Amino acid sequence: MIDIDCLHFAYDRQAVLTDITAHISSGECVALLGANGSGKSTLLMLLTGLYVPSQGRIKVHDMVSPGQERILRRFMGLLLQDADLQILGATVQEDLELSAKAEQEGRTAAWDLAGVFSLQDKWETPVHHLSGGQKRKLCLAGMLLREPRVLLYDEPFSGLDYPAMLELRSMLRANAAQGITQVVAAHDVEPLVGIATKCLVLDQGRLMYSGPLPEAMDQLAHYGVRPPCSWQRERRLVDWG
Questions:
Q1: Per the structure, how many domains does the chain have?
Q2: Phi, psi of 120 (to 5 degrees)
Q3: Residue 102: its pLDDT value, please?
Q4: I want to staple 55 with a disulfide (CB 3.0 to 4.6 A). Which of 8, 28, 163, 187 is the partner?
């Protein structure tokens, strides 16, 4: 599905990512882990075609970057950490219908998806009246209306309370059940236990680990990522359910 080959990226001549090589299989949910400033957000921007590699390449199915970023952007969905940067409409209805097809079928799909995300009762609500969790759901619903094959999330659990985190976990599970490939950038791995099967660990722009999530646990603290409490106390991973 996604092949990253000898990827380098520099911004204003400053190296941000160096020699990243990784593979993500179709339908996988992958945790992209690292401390703040490790390069997680930059890698997501490259995967979605918003940035262009300085060297190396990214291949998603038959699409390649550098060269096909515009096509790649239609194939990928990116959930930004700050939902306010992603919301375009003044109300829930307007924002979802901007993402939907212009035909009646698209507007019906927007309404139906609002039901899936418990937003129908907020249909005419101004977006600035929504909670942080509701805004994130609105952005995710808008992404799904475009029917992307890959979903990328930049720190999606940041700022959410516990009920909202559980709801987001349910969404990740549902997407995985539908075979959607997902990459979730996070600096706290605990909410992803039981969902992500693989992880990539970045440190100062370099890929330090790529493989099964449980086998990374003893390395995480060294790279600025807190291992789950259950691992620290009992050396096991506990799914939140």
A1: 2
A2: -65, -35
A3: 66
A4: 8
Cα separation, 152 vs 50, in Å, equals: 12
- Residue ranges in the chain whose pLDDT is less than 50: none
Q: Are residues 14 and 119 in the same domain?
A: no
Residue 225 structural domain: 1-38+50-61+150-241
Residue 7 corresponds to which tokens in the numbers above? Answer: 């990827």
The residues, any chain, with a CB within 8 Å of residue 150's CB and separated by 6 or more, are 1, 2, 47, 60, 75, 76, 77, 180, 181, 182, 183
pTM for this entry: 0.89
